[in-house]
Design brief:
This protein has helices at 24-34, 39-50, 56-81, 157-170, 187-196, 206-220, 224-239, 244-252, 256-264, 271-276, 284-297, 306-321, 324-332; strands spanning 99-110, 114-132, 139-154, 179-183, 201-204. With 333 residues, it is α/β, with parallel strands linked by helices. The chain folds into 3 domains: 1-81 and 306-333, no CATH class; 99-202 and 284-289, no CATH class; 207-273, no CATH class.
């Protein structure tokens, strides 16, 4: 018997998915609920709204059945797109909607494997709108991501790349006249970006960069009285893209790792220029997305089998992207 409780059930790999006893529409609502909250909570919500008691085990079974179906449909789509890295759009099909891409990783617990990383990519439209600056209190024009779409994969960079590329093709990234990629400083991210989006404007997330600068200041000046003014002065230099003023004192002090970080990412740290050109300098789109994935997948006590986790990542991404109904219909066809 599968125990009820905190948002998971052990998956018996010998269990065969039989035909559903529920109508397609009722099953769809059950699965949608399961992608937004734990199975026990989904059962309670279904009972209150639909006025019909459905066991949490039944919602789990429908989620595995249809999650597998949506996952296979998504894999077929990715196979049709292929793993080619260069797509030449037909003449006259370019568009001038600025698009952004962000990617990062989060952690979830897989039974028998401990904590494993899932990788998330998001593609979004970039719009510039007024926002009050948190430091100065002044209104400034800043770029923001809207209409976010997500893909998530529990696996290696090589396994994640086709999923991200398929999302990019679906969202017309190859046809976009302007594409920016904003992310933290992880090497795997920028290696993949060079592979998939070689013509994009690449930007290291401003908050990640300033956090790294704070660590460098502490390493250079263990005394906070000296570290604070250096950090503030270099923060202004960082915004202006004048990374050499950061690199040189770090290198002279033998802090080669910290110096190399800023040297390696100098072209991705031209923040004033990026801001003036209307590019997003923060990767909040993907960071907030990962929090939403973790809300469903990394809650208190949640442990997942790998197959169940892979299915839920597909379902959760569809719900977060607002494409669940379209994905459901496409999988049925």
């Amino acid at each position: 018997m599968r125990p009820a409780g905190w948002g998971f059930f052990p998956l018996d790999e010998r269990w065969e998915l039989t035909e559903s006893v529920y109508s397609p529409e009722r099953a769809k609502q059950m699965v949608w609920l399961a992608a937004t909250r734990s199975y026990a909570e989904a059962a309670e919500t279904f009972a209150r709204i639909a006025r019909r008691a459905v066991p949490a085990t039944s919602i789990w079974e429908e989620t595995q059945r249809h999650g597998a179906r949506l996952k296979h449909a998504l894999e077929r789509q990715q196979a049709q797109v292929g793993v080619e890295r260069v797509v030449l759009p037909p003449a006259g099909t370019d568009h001038h909607r600025p698009l952004g891409v962000s990617l990062d990783g989060g952690k979830m617990h897989i039974r028998g494997e401990a904590w494993k990383e899932f990788k998330v990519g998001t593609v979004y439209e970039v719009v510039v709108k007024p926002e009050r600056d948190r430091e100065t209190g002044e209104w400034v024009e800043r770029a923001h991501g809207v209409k976010m779409a997500y893909r998530a994969v529990l696996g290696s960079v090589a396994e994640f790349a086709p999923a991200l590329w398929a999302l990019a093709v679906e969202r017309q990234v190859p046809q976009a006249a302007e594409v920016s990629v904003t992310a933290d400083g992880a090497d795997w991210i920028w290696n993949l970006t060079e592979d998939l989006f070689p013509d994009s404007v690449q930007i290291v997330d401003w908050y990640h960069a300033t956090g790294y600068l704070a660590g460098a200041a502490e390493a250079l000046h263990p005394n906070e009285a000296a570290a604070h003014p250096w950090r503030q002065a270099r923060r202004n230099d960082l915004y202006l893209g004048q990374t050499q003023k950061i690199i040189e004192p770090l290198a002279r002090a033998g802090l080669t790792t910290q110096a190399e970080y800023f040297r390696r990412h100098t072209r991705r740290m031209q923040y004033q220029e990026f801001h003036e050109q209307g590019y997003p300098i923060g990767s909040g789109t993907v960071e907030s997305g990962i929090k939403r994935f973790k809300h469903r997948l990394s809650g208190p006590g949640m442990r997942w089998s790998r197959p169940a986790a892979e299915r839920m990542l597909v379902l959760r991404a569809a719900v977060m992207s607002g494409t669940f109904d379209a994905a459901w219909a496409a999988a049925r066809n």
